[in-house]
Amino acid sequence: MNCSCPRYTLAESNLPLLKLVSVVIGIVTLLTFIVLAESAAARVEATEQPVTPVPLVTRLLIVATILIPNVVLCTVLWCTGWGAWVHEQLHGGVMRSLGVRPAYGKFLRTRWIRGDYCVPSQPHLFGRSGFAAITLAPALVLFMLGVALSVASPYSVIISLALAWQVGSCSGDVLFAWHLWRAPRLSLIEDLGNTIVIHRPEPDAQAEAERYRCRHLSA
């Protein structure tokens, strides 16, 4: 759809901001998982008999045992594109639940690394709440998965880094959600992949926009 509506693109111009947001989200997520895992470990230790202090070498081996699988898993997810594939499938699953058939595609990043994207198979206008669910689905699902694992077992910290990294990679989705939150209540969102177009209703056309949105989402 061609219009003069505001559009926001994930481009090289905002790449530094995206990297900063990604790092902040990843660190906060990782710290959350670690705190929850430590709480789970404390509960387990409270039910066990006191043990002798662990030697330094043993502690270093434990750290290596935790860190190495994380690094390997992050590398595999990044180089194979599986992390991006899961991310886009979560977008598509919510999109499909709203009655819109998603279309998936692949592109080649630098250094022969594959990327994935998900867009509606046909032009579609989403309401603010519907698009918020679509764009935030990967971050929320992966974060809640990490929380559930951390609470269930202290050993889940082995995959906490990989999950935190995946949640941090949702920085573009968070940026879209920020623009969505600032948009007028009756705005309609057009998803173009790495670009969203926010169709803002005029004050005297808000009632018509609301009727159109209801018809469009119920179709």
Please tell me about this protein's structure.
- By secondary structure, the chain is an alpha+beta fold.
- It has helices spanning 15-46, 56-80, 82-97, 128-152, 160-168, 171-182, 206-218, and strands at 7-9, 102-108, 114-120, 125-127, 188-191, 195-199.
- Helix 1 (15-46) packs across helix 6 (171-182), helix 4 packs antiparallel against helix 5 (160-168) and helix 4 (128-152) crosses helix 6.
- The mean pLDDT is 81.
List keywords for this structure.
four-stranded antiparallel β-sheet, alpha+beta, two-stranded antiparallel ribbon, 219 residues, elongated
SS elements, strand count: 6
The Cα radius of gyration reads 21 Å
pLDDT averaged over residues: 81
Q: What is the string of helix and strand elements? A: EHHHEEEHHHEEH
Largest sheet: 4 strands, antiparallel
Overall geometry comes to: elongated
DSSP strand content: 5-15%
Helical fraction equals 55-70%
Give the termini separation.
19 Å
- The number of helical elements comes to 7
Low-confidence stretches are none
In which order are the strands of the major sheet placed? 1-6-5-4
**Category by helix and strand content:** alpha+beta
Short description:
By secondary structure, the protein is α+β, with helices and mostly antiparallel strands.
